[in-house]
Amino acid sequence: MSEYKSDLLRLLQERGHIHQVTDADALDALASKEIVTAYVGFDPTAPSLHIGNLASIMLLKRVQQAGHRPIVIMGGGTAKVGDPSGKDETRTMLTEERLAANVASIKDSFEKILRFDDSPTGAILINNDDWLSKLGYIEMLRDVGPHFTINRMLTFDSVKLRLDREQPLTFLEFNYMIMQAYDFLKLARDYDCRLQLGGSDQWGNIVNGIELTRRIDGKEVYGVTAPLITRADGQKMGKSVSGAIWLNEEQLPGYDFWQYWRNTDDRDVGRFLRLFTDVPLDEVARLEALEGAEINEAKVVLANEVTKMVRGEAAAKAAEATARETFAGGGVGEDLPTLSVGDEGMRIGAVLTAIGFTQSNGEAKRKLAEGAVKLEDAVVTDPGILVLPAVNESLKLSLGKKKHGLVTR
C-alpha cells in the first residue's frame, strides 16, 4: 500500500476508493500543496441516478472533504452519443427535451451530498452540452482528430469487447471517447481542472483526456479510477430482484432504498461503510467485527447513514421505524411499498409482480408454490386468489422474511 502524503489520496485509499492512479507521485505532490479541481461525468440517461453512480458521487464528496474542489459534469452532450463502455448494444437515442428533464431531475441528488457555494472548495455543476453542441464538425476534426489514431481506439475495451462479440458499434458511439477527452481539455482550460475520477471502466476514456490535454496545451492532468463494486455474491452493485436501486424517491420508495442496504451481505458491511458513509474508520472496524445476529446492528447503521445522506434524515428515521414495526412488532409500518388494486381487485400472482416483489408472473407462481408468500401473515399458495381489501383497509403482503408491502383498494 502506497504511503500518500496528501489528504486527498490518503482519504481515497483509506476508504477503499482507489483502483488505478496516473502518475500517483505527481498528483500526490500537487494535492499536498494546492487546491485541486477534480471532476466526474454523469450521463443523464434516466430521470434518476442509481447506487452504481453513488460510488462516483462519493469520489467527489471525498475530494471536497479533503479540501479540494469538485465539479459535477452533467453529460447532456455526451448522452446524445452514448458511452459504449460495458454495453452490448446501442443505447436508445434520447430527445433534447428528455435529456433536459433528466438533468433537472438528477440535480437534487448532488445537492444533498455535495456542498455547493462560492468558496474555493464549493462544488460546481456544469452541463457539457454547453460546449459540445456548439462545436463545429470540421473544427472538431481538425483540432482534435489528429491526436487520435484508429489503431489505438480499436484497442480500448469499450470498442474491443463490442467487436469481439460481433455486436454493432456505431460511428456515433465510436466518437464518445473523443468527446469525453475534449471535456477534460475544456475543463483544464476554463477551470484549471487537473483531475478526472471515475469507475474502472472509464480508465481508457480518462487516459485519452490526459493525453489530449498534454498534446494540445502541454498541461499535466491526472486520473483516478475506483474499483468496480461487486457484492460478495458476485452480483454487480446496484441491482436487485426488482430492478435498479434508484437515488430519487420518485423512482424508488424510501423504505425499499433503506431495506436494500439493511439486507447487505455480512461480508460486505465493512467495505460498504467505508465507501458509502462517513462513519469513522475505527467505528467501521468495530462494526464489521460483529458476529452472528449482532452484525445486524452494523447493517442498520449502514442503511441509516446512506439513506440519511441520499434521502435526508426524515426518510432514514421513517424507514427504520417501519422496519422495526414490521419485523419486531409484526405490524405494518407506514413507509412500506404500497399497491392499489382498485375496486376490481387483482390476482395475487399479478400483485406480487406489480408491487415489484417478483419480475414475472411465472416467478410469482413459483414463489407461491414454495410457500414463500403470506397475506396478513397467512401463507398463500394459489396464484388465482383475488386480493380485494375492504374500502380504507390495507392488507400486509410478504415475500420471504425481507420483502413486505401493503395492498390497498
TrEMBL record:
A motif ('KMSKS' region) lies at residues 236-240. Its EC number is 6.1.1.1. It holds the Pfam family tRNA-synt_1b. L-tyrosine binds at residues 39, 176, 180. PROSITE patterns: AA_TRNA_LIGASE_I, S4. CDD domains: TyrRS_core (cd00805). SUPFAM superfamilies: Alpha-L RNA-binding motif, Nucleotidylyl transferase. Its main location: cytoplasm. It is found in: Cytoplasm. This is Tyrosine--tRNA ligase. It comes from Altererythrobacter arenosus.
